[in-house]
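Exercise: predict the fold of this chain.
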Amino acid sequence: MKNNDKVISRIIVALSILVPIVVALMFVMPDSMKLEIGFINTKALPLLHAILNGCTAILLILALIFVKNKNIVLHKATMISAFILSSIFLVSYVLTHISTPETKFGGEGNIRYVYFFILISHIILSIPVLPLAMFAIYRGFTNDVIKHKKIVRFAWPIWFYVAVTGVLVYIFMAPYYSV
């Protein structure tokens, strides 16, 4: 492994550990410690999150189409755009959860099982998305096509699932958000 590879790999691994820890800590943060962010309507952010996730899913589909058609320039552009949208989502998601009280799902009956299956699988699969996406992007930009393809076999479907289920979680939760 080249020196540059070692440095990038360490950064990716560090972020891949740090980000889930920060996100997990948000969920145990008592409401009394939540920040007051007066200049942003944080109650409107869940809709923004759904839009960002939906756009990410669309970009991932477009990127797949572009690479299948051997249009690498558009493939790279759409993948970078998907990563940027996902990054904006992550920052906004953290901002939302450190500044607003938790909203609980109020559905009853079988819909609860469906919702919690989608939510739990979304949360679990969101953890590997960050390192997989970063390694895939890095391997793509270094033109290491063989390693890029090996990573993408796992990264793309997981990332796509997380993006789509992010929208579904919002749809399930929308009646319980007070805007």
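Check your answer against the key: The CA atoms of residues 111 and 172 lie 9 Å apart.
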